[in-house]
Design a protein that fits this description.
- The complex is a heterodimer.
- Chain A is of the alpha/beta class.
- Chain A folds into 2 domains: about 130 residues, Nucleotidyltransferase, domain 5 (2-Layer Sandwich), CATH 3.30.420; about 140 residues, ATPase, nucleotide binding domain (Nucleotidyltransferase, domain 5, 2-Layer Sandwich).
- Helix content of chain A is about 35%, strand content about 20%.
- In chain A, the strands form 2 sheets. Chain A has a 6-stranded mixed β-sheet with strand order 1-4-3-2-5-6. In chain A, strands 9-8-7-10 form a 4-stranded mixed β-sheet, sandwiched between helices.
- Chain A starts with a helix and ends in a 9-residue tail after the last helix.
- By secondary structure, chain B is α/β, with parallel strands linked by helices.
- Chain B folds into 2 domains: about 110 residues, Nucleotidyltransferase, domain 5 (2-Layer Sandwich); about 150 residues, Nucleotidyltransferase, domain 5.
- Helices cover about 40% and strands about 20% of the residues of chain B.
- Chain B has 8 helices and 9 strands.
- In chain B, helix 4 crosses helix 7 and helix 6 crosses helix 7.
- The chains are: A alpha/beta, B alpha/beta.
- Chains A and B meet through helix 4 and helix 6 of A and helix 5 of B.
């Protein structure tokens, strides 16, 4: 990591992974889901509905390019998987129209519900997806099918971008914010401004008054939890409740949100940021099974 | 009667000193995180300019989001009254007043007697106030004072998707990477903000004369964009528009009819 990158606290770690226990050569259908968000992009490769590989990285300015980069990042460690072996690609996310290799695009709401169903199991009924620039609360059935949802995408409050602003402000790597927010003796009052710009200004004032970074982070995580809670309440919560998207990995926000919702959230070993791409890959498999033949589309 | 009006705003604290209705001193200081100190500083500077002492002041009026930091104040002036009085001082025909500061934007309708008959405010969202232009200026590496004139050079409208200052900053950076011209991006920023202001203003209805005050009134790009959107011929902007509410507070402290 270069010296310059060490100071970019908003730059969360990119990651990829291959499942050593799955052999794509024996799979009937290899399907890919690519979720291009405003802040991050994920590509998930599945062999007959089992996780084969994934890649998660920053979207950057060119969402068309980031779809390709995410897929390459996922597939790269899979030595020998030729692209022709991929039977179906489903694109989703804010930039889903820019997934050049997609055979089809599906809504991020549908993909997140389906992905949450895979990650958390058939008991999940309320999915909260907090991504880089939006908050979605989704009600789904036991098959992971969407029944209702609400979307908040006009305001940075409660989103990943808001958290990035704070990471930069207090100079704490974003993936450590949750941890740091609990290093406090007493829970401080939440930051009072909902608007991220004004919240940042308020936080600077608190720091000048002598507040510690940990206290400021606790106050901001509380304020984020408050705002997300207000969105979730509009949809109504039916157990079981599960969170997806990057913010699901922020313990500082999730635990404070759990207190407000009054429910334990479901747990998973998988990275919840993959939910959209997982759902997309699973839809790809369903489509393959439905048509029972390999699909190849002209890839851009 | 010598009065002082102090408008303690989110970004700047402005003081105006009036002697029998004539402006004799004015000064501004950054509010920062010490509003009481900023009130002191701007008051001292304004008094110095007027060649007066604190003891010469008959009454002090305080207004703005930090009005409780104006101590001692003989009267705390509601922002609506300060707006109205300030606008009418320069333009007796004012019927709609738009006040856009660094962190808040508001609009008021005045009746024939100069009283505020309707009022709307945005103080929650940075995208509808002056700090929006500043933030976009940083993204464009352009001084905020140059943003307006730059926007006026453009004859190409680009529509922005983002409603939020944080998202707009990313969108501007994206436009820069897509090689859009700075002047066109600046215009897009001004059009987007004016659109939000006009939505707010329309809620109280527009009646001419329309007056704009507050620091953002100095931005010709915003004034032009609002004029275009409202489809009116003229928006009146007083000299030193950022002092208009402080002036209104000084007038209120002096008492007397509004219009």
């Amino acid at each position: 990591m270069s010296g310059e990158q060490a100071h970019e606290c908003w730059r969360w770690p990119e990651s990829n992974w291959v499942n050593p226990d799955v052999n794509w050569q024996e799979a009937q259908f290899v399907t890919v889901g690519v979720d291009v968000g405003s802040v991050s992009s994920q590509a998930v490769v599945m062999a007959d509905g089992e996780m084969l590989a994934y890649g998660s990285l920053r979207t950057g300015f060119n969402s068309r390019e980031s779809a390709r980069r995410a897929l390459d990042f996922a597939v790269e460690p899979l030595s020998g998987l030729p692209e022709e072996r991929i039977d179906y690609v489903v694109g989703t996310g804010y930039g889903r129209v820019n997934v050049p290799m997609a055979d089809r695009s599906l809504t991020e709401v549908a993909c997140h519900a389906r992905g949450a169903h895979f990650i958390y199991g058939p008991e999940v009924r309320t999915v909260l997806d907090v991504g880089g620039q939006d908050i979605k609360a989704i009600r789904c059935d036991e098959k992971g099918k969407v029944i209702d949802f609400i979307l908040n995408d006009k305001c940075a409050a409660g989103t990943g971008r808001g958290m990035e602003v704070f990471a930069d402000l207090v100079n704490v790597p974003i993936q450590d914010i949750g941890e740091w927010s609990f290093r406090i003796a007493e829970e401080p009052p939440a930051v009072s401004n909902t608007c991220v710009v004004y919240a940042k200004s308020e936080a600077v004032g608190l720091l000048r008054k002598g507040w510690g970074v940990e206290q400021v982070l606790a106050a901001y995580c509380s304020s984020t939890a408050d705002y997300i809670h207000s969105v979730v309440e509009r949809l109504g919560v039916t157990p079981e409740f599960a969170a997806t998207g990057g913010m699901a990995k922020n313990r500082g926000v999730m635990e404070r949100l759990m207190n407000r919702v009054g429910l334990e959230f479901m747990k998973t070993e998988w990275d919840p940021q993959l939910a959209g791409a997982i759902g997309a890959a699973l839809f790809g498999r369903t489509l393959c099974q439905k048509w029972k033949k390999r699909k190849k589309a002209a890839r851009a | 009667m010598i009065t002082a009006g102090v408008d303690c705003g989110g970004k700047n604290t402005k003081t105006v000193i009036l002697n029998d209705g004539r402006i004799v001193g004015r000064a501004s200081a950054r509010t920062g995180y010490q509003p009481v100190g900023a009130v002191e500083m701007s008051m001292e500077s304004a008094l110095r300019e007027a060649g007066l002492e604190r003891s010469d002041l008959d009454r002090i009026g305080g207004t703005g989001s930090g009005r409780n930091s104006v101590k001692p104040a003989d009267t705390i002036v509601d922002e609506r009254e300060a707006m109205g009085r300030g606008a009418l001082y320069y333009f007796p025909g004012a019927r709609t007043v738009i006040d856009v500061g660094a962190e808040e934007a508001r609009a008021a309708r005045l009746d024939g007697n100069g009283n505020v008959s309707d009022f709307v405010v945005n103080e929650k969202c940075a995208a509808g106030a002056g700090s929006f232009i500043e933030a976009m200026g940083r993204a464009l590496e352009t001084d905020v004072r140059d943003m307006g004139p730059l926007a006026l050079e453009s004859d190409k409208g680009i529509s922005m998707n983002a409603q939020c200052a944080v998202f707009a900053e990313s969108e501007v950076v994206g436009l820069i990477h897509a090689n859009a011209e700075k002047k066109d991006i600046s215009r897009a920023v001004h059009d987007a903000m004016a659109g939000r202001l006009v939505s707010m203003i329309r809620r109280i209805g527009v009646l001419e004369d329309v007056v704009m005050i507050g620091g953002v009134a100095r931005n010709p790009g915003i004034v032009e964009a609002i004029k275009r959107d409202l489809k009116i011929g003229e928006i009146h902007v007083p000299e030193d528009p950022e002092y208009a509410s402080a002036l209104g507070a000084a007038l209120a402290a002096a008492g007397g009819p509004v219009a």
